[in-house]
TrEMBL record:
A biological-process GO annotation: respiratory electron transport chain
Main location: membrane
Transmembrane domains' residue ranges: 38-61, 92-118, 139-161, 181-202, 222-248, 280-296, 308-329, 341-361, 373-395, 407-430, 450-471, 491-515
Membrane topology: Multi-pass membrane protein
Any one of the GO CC terms: membrane
Name of this chain's protein: Cytochrome c oxidase, subunit I
Subcellular location: Membrane
Keywords of this entry: Electron transport, Heme, Iron, Membrane, Metal-binding, Oxidoreductase, Respiratory chain, Transmembrane, Transmembrane helix, Transport
PANTHER family hit by this protein: CYTOCHROME C OXIDASE SUBUNIT 1
EC number(s) recorded for this UniProt protein: 1.9.3.1
Organism: Thermaerobacter marianensis (strain ATCC 700841 / DSM 12885 / JCM 10246 / 7p75a)
Function noted in UniProt: Cytochrome c oxidase is the component of the respiratory chain that catalyzes the reduction of oxygen to water. Subunits 1-3 form the functional core of the enzyme complex. CO I is the catalytic subunit of the enzyme. Electrons originating in cytochrome c are transferred via the copper A center of subunit 2 and heme A of subunit 1 to the bimetallic center formed by heme A3 and copper B.
PROSITE patterns tied to this protein: COX1, COX1_CUB
All residue ranges annotated as the Cytochrome oxidase subunit I profile domain in the record: 21-554
């Protein structure tokens, strides 16, 4: 390859024959699109809107929990159905608790990671032009807003949103108003959308990899998204079946979960948590893949222990299906069975620790570029360690019986699933924003956003462990009756103020995101000097991804700072052939 061709290849420019697509109308291109990149952006933007809704509900909850006895006449004027006599209505509060958890788990984190990033990255990183089933991909997205309509409609029907929590335990959920039925329909439709997407991701990864892209050369992002799709194929049907059974109980006269008719409410818990604990990893595994990719790219080092990272992903996926019982230690479970679930729960900490130590080894003695994306990736590791350590405590039946249904669980859950996964989303957005939109986000605003978010999360969720240790229960409308436990008031004030800081920080992100889409500096094809195939495509990639021929893969994706590279070259992209590597240093390619 000529020196000019080498420089173009390192920068991400193609050198082969073209591939063209017919022009499309606005509606066909941007609304009812079958292009995986447009569908990815639709998923991401819709999930971010839902995150704003879920976050707003959280702010209302913290208003009540921060100062439960205070009247809020301004809020009553703005939301007369939610605030009565200046104070938040208890029924609205419990509906907000339910919908906050539902929105953040299902409509934000799961859809942003397993809908948005999966759609965008899988075809690009394996060298495909689109998903295996583009029409099914479009349908899977449009089921998402249908599910949203059913979920949000529960606020506007008689009785309001259900107050049974995002876990919807019977017999309470069997007796809730109409909003509970709408919630169940919404969840069923959303699970159907996830199944359709998962089938696409698995088929695409197995069948549409470009020449040279073996499974051992897949980026860890694709590995985690692929394994997540496999987990979803087995986990989502359990919740779909449970939701359908509960709908029949509510409107069809059956008694699957109603003890008054011979049903068993514990059956719901088994079905829900057989889905629910794999769901934790359906959210966290894609975030782990994103963090692995971002850390390697910005640390300018190969991912430490690539094969062990893949193996730990597979181990986590397998073990996730045999740990669900640790959510049910307080349900009257046999001590023998509880001990077995304790063993599997502690076992799943091992592959999680493998990933953690491999991330730390990747960072160790690296030439880290502390971009906003890198800060969020490092912050993810911090949050994952904090949440993981408290998870070991809850995985032991003897300690869980005390901490169960206290604020200790709320703090743990938000660290490990909420905050850590959120940081994975932010790391991915800041990292791949140039590829998605062809423009750069503002780094200064990004770093302000990071520090306010990082400090806000620790200020919000870390004190919850102290409240839980003191014995303050979760899902309570007011803590005034629990002041004998200690200085509950001060801790709740700190938590609420920190939550407001955390919420305000997201306004900075929203401005940065939407301003940068249209006015940000134009991005190069490969602004981070990364190795994976999406950076070989134009920014943003055209319909069909590759403006010319599909790329050919010659190596694994993490050849950063290789010893054999010519002087001035700190990365060898997957698309660069061996002869080009030998001449790369002489024309200055790759030194940018």
């Amino acid at each position: 390859m000529a020196h000019g061709g080498t420089q173009a290849a390192l920068a991400g420019h193609a050198t082969h024959a073209g591939h063209h697509h017919e022009p499309q109308s606005f509606w066909r291109r941007y609304i009812f699109s079958t292009d995986h990149k447009i569908i990815a952006i639709q998923y991401l933007l819709t999930s971010l809107v839902m995150a704003a809704v879920g976050g707003f509900l959280a702010m209302l909850m913290r208003v009540q929990l921060g100062w439960p006895g205070r009247q809020w006449p301004l809020l009553e004027a703005l939301m007369p159905n939610a605030f009565k006599g200046g104070r938040m209505d208890p029924d609205f509060y419990y509906g907000a608790v339910t919908m906050h958890g539902t929105i953040m788990v299902f409509f934000f984190l799961t859809t942003a990671l397993s809908g948005g990033f999966a759609n965008f990255l899988i075809p690009l990183q394996i060298g495909a032009r689109d998903m295996a089933f583009p029409v099914l991909n479009m349908i899977s997205y449009w089921l998402f807003p249908v599910a949203i309509v059913f979920a949000l409609a529960s606020f506007f029907v008689q009785g309001g949103a259900p107050g049974s929590g995002w876990t919807a335990y019977p017999p309470l959920s069997d007796r809730e108003p109409l909003g509970q039925t709408l919630w169940l329909i919404s969840v069923f439709i959303l699970m159907l959308a996830f199944l359709a997407g998962g089938i696409n991701y698995i088929t695409t990864t197995l069948n549409l990899r470009t020449k040279g892209m073996s499974m051992s050369r897949l980026p860890l992002t694709v590995w985690t998204l692929f394994v997540t799709a496999l987990v979803g194929l087995f986990a989502f049907p359990a919740l779909m079946a449970a939701a359908l059974m509960l709908i029949f109980d509510r409107v069809g006269g059956t008694h699957f979960f109603d003890p008054a008719g011979g049903g068993d409410p514990i059956l719901w818990q088994h079905l829900f948590w057989f889905f629910g604990h794999p769901e934790v990893y359906i959210v966290i595994l894609p975030a782990m893949g994103i963090v692995s990719e971002v850390l390697a790219t910005h640390a300018r080092k190969p991912v430490f222990g690539y094969r062990y990272m893949v193996g730990s992903t597979l181990a986590i996926a397998g073990l996730s299906f045999i740990v669900w019982g640790h959510h049910m230690f307080a349900s009257g479970m046999s001590p023998t069975l509880g001990s077995m679930f304790m063993a599997t729960t502690l076992a799943i900490a091992i592959p999680s620790a493998v990933k953690t130590f491999n991330w730390l080894a990747t960072i160790y003695r690296s030439k880290m570029r502390f971009t906003t994306a890198a800060l969020y990736a490092v912050g993810f590791v911090s949050l994952f360690i904090t949440g993981g350590l408290t998870g070991i405590i809850l995985g032991n039946p003897s300690t869980d019986l005390y901490f169960h249904d206290t604020y200790f669980v709320v703090g743990h859950f938000h660290f490990i699933m909420g905050a850590a996964a959120l940081f994975g989303v932010f790391a991915g957005l800041y990292h791949w924003f140039p590829k998605m939109f062809g423009r750069m986000m503002n780094e200064r605003l990004g770093k302000i956003h990071f520090w306010l978010t990082f400090l806000g999360i620790y200020g919000t969720f870390f004190p919850m462990h102290f409240l839980g240790t003191a014995g303050m229960p979760r899902r309570i409308y007011s803590w005034e009756a629990y002041q004998f436990l200690g200085d509950v008031a001060t801790l709740n004030h700190i938590i609420s103020i920190s939550a407001f800081v955390l919420g305000a920080a997201q306004l900075i992100f929203a401005f940065n995101l939407f301003y940068s889409m249209f006015r940000g500096p134009k991005a190069e094809r490969n602004p981070w000097q990364a190795n994976t195939l999406e950076w070989w495509a134009p920014s943003p990639p055209p319909h069909g991804n590759w403006d010319e021929a599909e790329p050919v893969v010659y190596r694994w994706p993490y050849e950063y700072s290789p010893k054999y590279a010519p002087e001035g070259v700190d990365h060898i992209p997957q698309w660069l052939p061996e002869p080009a590597v030998a001449t790369a240093g002489r024309d200055g390619a790759g030194a940018r």
